[in-house]
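Quality-control log, excerpt.
Job 1 of 2 completed; input and output follow.
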Amino acid sequence: MLSSVPALLPLSLLEAVQNIDTPADDGLGALQDELASKRLGLSPTVAAQVARYRQRAVDGETVAADEVLAVFRLVGRRPDAALVYADAGRRAARYAAKEIGPGVKGMLAMAPGKRTKLAIGLRAASKLSQRWLLADLQPADGLARCELLDSLPMQAREDGVACAFYTAALAELLRLVAGVEGAMVHRSCRGRGDRSCVWLAAEAGGYQ
């Protein structure tokens, strides 16, 4: 495991906590204020950490892996952990997609056909995933496959709940970069006793 990881990972996690802990604007007034005071995502501590991680992400800096693991574990203790992990995964993918280079953008725009554009997009998504999401996403069987023997989400929740982070992140990255509208099917999971976690991309209508 790496000693440090991209700052966008803990940033995405805490932004997701903030998002989910923010009460709906339904006119309940004082009740909302009371609930907000009890929600981690609305605490000054989380706000300060988000600001810190956001600045590090803007500067292209990293954060110690142990610190990021602690954030994954913090989320993992919540009853709505799967929901937060999925929200965070989509956020991380959106941050990663912004790092696509102008050259690749030009190639995607000028690609002569759908198949060529897909191939270029899959290669770009693979590189972005490895660099920013620390996931080995590779083109396979016309779409993509990812296998992880270990990861921060796996260390945070051994039961596989945290895998929702990568399930959502990889699907969102493929949608944004390669135009793949579908899902990442979590075919095998260490949390279920498998040797590794494996995700396979499936276009809409091609999965169950």
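Job 2 of 2 completed; input and output follow.
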Amino acid sequence: MPDTIDVPGYLARLGLPELAGHEPSVPALRALHRAHAERVPYECLEIHLGRPTTVCPAESVRRIVAGRGGYCFHLNGAFSALLRALGYRVTRHVAGVQGRADPAPAINGNHLVLTVSGLPSAESPEGDWLVDLGMGDGLHGPLPLVEGHHTDGPFRYGLRASVVERGGWRFDHDPRCGFRGMDFRAGPARMSDFREKHEELITSPESGFVRVAMAARRDATGVDVVRGLTLSRIGTVSSKTVLGDEVTYFTALADIFGIVLPPADRAVLWPRVFEAHRGWEQQES
């Protein structure tokens, strides 16, 4: 059954109300993807605010329309529902992200990725596109699902056949970014396929989302990432700074990532972020 979502509200959040009823096209897909990457943050703050989430796309859409974001299961789940409502041919896929410390790739279900088909162009003669708003420091726009190297702003990516699973794909990330790559299965997935891994990621002490409050936002020239109190910019110009106090931290969340929290949420989040960052500093010293 299709997800019932607030399409006008979602498009308004993206600043693209004129795309309601627009015929699916590569330019429109690119505009939707880029606007989503720029306006809807990749973030895990609900975990640190003690508010459990699900992988339900309709729930994720409501949170996005209300001004927040989420991580891969939320963002790609919601975006796939929007694209389907707009008439795009979208497939959800089980994937696995290979972190910098992971010795080998694996399709372990810790990531949801999308493909869109039926939109042939000079870049993608078969009409297939990789669509992924859930990698944090990943794509700004959709990539042609074609083997080879692809440039997206200041970053260079690779697409090739996966060595993990026959028929699957491998995305090789830019070496400046936060993980090595991502593999995904060719076959379609259901949102229920991600429930167990989602529960692990939002509750396990070993989960990076549980250990550190973070947010990321991609644009045409790079990506902003805040992990704990460390704010980084990676791209055409790169920088790193520590947000030294509560006011500076919440100002950065609002001005850079578009996350405006009410006083009650700030009162809960700040001591948790501060203590986690201090613990990390002690480990590094």
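Post-run check on job 2. The chain has a mean pLDDT of 95.
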